[in-house]
Amino acid sequence: MDNRGRQQHRYSNGQRKELLAEFHASNATSERQFCRAKHLPYSTWQGWRSKEDKIMTNKRHSRCATMGGQGAKEIIPFKDDLLAFMLPEGLASAVLGEQKSEAVAFNSFRSLLLRFAERHRFRHRTPCISKVTQRVLDEVWLGYAASFWSKYAQYDRSQLLNVDETAVYFDMPPGKTLAEIGKSSKVANGEKHSDRLTAVLTIRADGQPGGVIDKKELSTYPAGHFYAVQKNAWMDERVWSMYLDEVLAPCLDDASVLVVDNFECHVSDSTHEKLAETLFSVVEPLPPNSTSRCQPLDVGVMGPLKAMLKTAWLLEEDSRSSVDDVFTAQEKRLAMVKRTILVWEKITSETVAKSFDKAIPTVLEG
């Protein structure tokens, strides 16, 4: 005797719609007879009939077996209004203006929004390009850390420095957007070539942030930082030499180690000679294509810095009297300088020290 139960069959949304439409088109008077002809359990058919309107108007793909909406129920009482507002509008400006602490409000609201977005099938999408595999990068990282400390273990942590450049733009909208799954994440418009300057950031392994490389217009910039003009707003041999003489040299009390990437002017013969002969220090180049793993600034500082710059830009946008405000090039440069200084001063010594420990660990993982 076969004790097996009836074989389960799972119907897709398309099959449900087809069978319901076929039943109405056939003008059948007996639903049970229709079910027997289609080998369809009558109890299943009754469930479809009770939800017929919902099945026929459902917009999920016909291959899907469910109509959506499963899982935990929403605890946000205004979820429908929030979802409707989320599609065409940005949310930050509507919420931040009413909070006492803008930074805390932004982070709290961002966490709430991300959890809400995940339940409604939204995802953050960011392109990521790497020239080497993660496995190779890990091997390079461990080898570099061992080599670094075998050469510089006798140096005090205040004598270990890392320097790198990063671009700062006048318009710094968030690099991610919430895109509904299956739909485009392109934006209608945006300034492709926003005004830019280059910030040169220096940190010490003991947790002390350094200065920012940051003369008619330069005299109007905030004091306590160094500024230079370059045609393309980027680092070159001349500006790098000015950085070594005017910014780095006054900060060195003893022979030090300057960790840099493989940018040409960073590792040039003139740089090696200047640090060795004038500052009694050495240049330590990072392995090629390894800055994401081995450079302290990239590992633990650049991320928080850029995130805070974008938050600062959002707050500036929210505080403007008109969205049609027009800024001169000089006003834009001054705004970028002030924004960068404001954010850089928020980088803590703990963040800097942790970035060195993570990028160039003294205790290697087994």
Explain what this protein looks like in three dimensions.
This protein has 366 residues and is α/β, with parallel strands linked by helices. The chain folds into three domains: 1-69, no CATH class; 79-120, no CATH class; 134-359, Nucleotidyltransferase, domain 5. Helices cover 44% and strands 10% of the residues. The chain has helices at 13-26, 31-37, 42-50, 52-57, 79-86, 92-96, 102-119, 134-152, 237-248, 269-277, 291-294, 296-319, 329-344, 349-359, and strands spanning 122-123, 160-169, 179-180, 196-204, 209-212, 257-260, 282-285. Helix 12 (296-319) crosses helix 13 and helix 12 runs antiparallel to helix 14. The longest helix has 24 residues, at 296-319. It starts with 12 loop residues before the first helix and ends in a 7-residue tail after the last helix. The relative contact order is 0.11. Pfam families: DDE_1. Residues 222-356 form the DDE-1 domain. This is DDE-1 domain-containing protein. It comes from Aphanomyces astaci.
